[in-house]
Specification:
The protein is an alpha/beta fold. It has a single domain, classed as Acetylglutamate kinase-like (Carbamate kinase, 3-Layer(aba) Sandwich). The chain has 9 helices and 11 strands. The protein has a 9-stranded mixed sheet with strand order 4-3-5-2-1-6-10-11-9, sandwiched between helices. Strands 7-8 form a two-stranded antiparallel ribbon. The radius of gyration is 17 Å and the shape is globular.
Amino acid sequence: MYNRILLKLSGEALKGETTYGIDPQTVSEIAKQIKDVHDLGVEVGIVVGGGNIWRGKTASELGMDRAQADYMGMLATIMNGLAVQDSLEKINVPTRVMTAIPCNQVAEPYIRRRAIRHLEKGRVCIFVGGLGNPYFSTDTACVLRATEIGAQVVLMAKNKTEGVYDSDPRKNPDAKMYEELTFSEILNKNLAVMDSTAASLCKDNNLNLIVFNMNNKGNIVKAVKGEKIGTLVKVK
């Protein structure tokens, strides 16, 4: 159903059952799912979060300078991106890590036209370093990169969450999962899917979003094929 996608991987997804950091076995399993999509001929871009290592917003709430804390979070995404690259290349998936923060020894600088060329050549592009600016989340970076590379959909892979709920299912056993939503509803109901900047960007650029549980093997392929999983968030 889709020829070019942007997959959003949360940092939390990379830690597996551990409480902190990167679990190599979990990253390896994620890489296998990405390979399945890549083998279909789909062009894959990935944005990686850093919450398994550092959360800039949380640190700022505890008194740290917000800009400094956010830069540290961006560096955490570079570490995660390199871990994902390592696992993908071990199973023969060609990749490029592209960063918004210059780090020439380990990653290419993000250049839009170069990223598109990598995708056209069948390389998976892993976008790290956020947007290179503080005060923006990796959700916003994800939507902006998707728009820049011409992705047809954003796949938001969640850790142990099936989709979008009307309340936190971990706290409310009666929480209801939505099968479909619009970005206007997300903004009006203040649903915890992505921040308001990212949701507005999706809405303004006619970019649909699929929120699903990545721990169910095969779900990424199902989402790419257009099978009904998780929550579809539409422009209208």
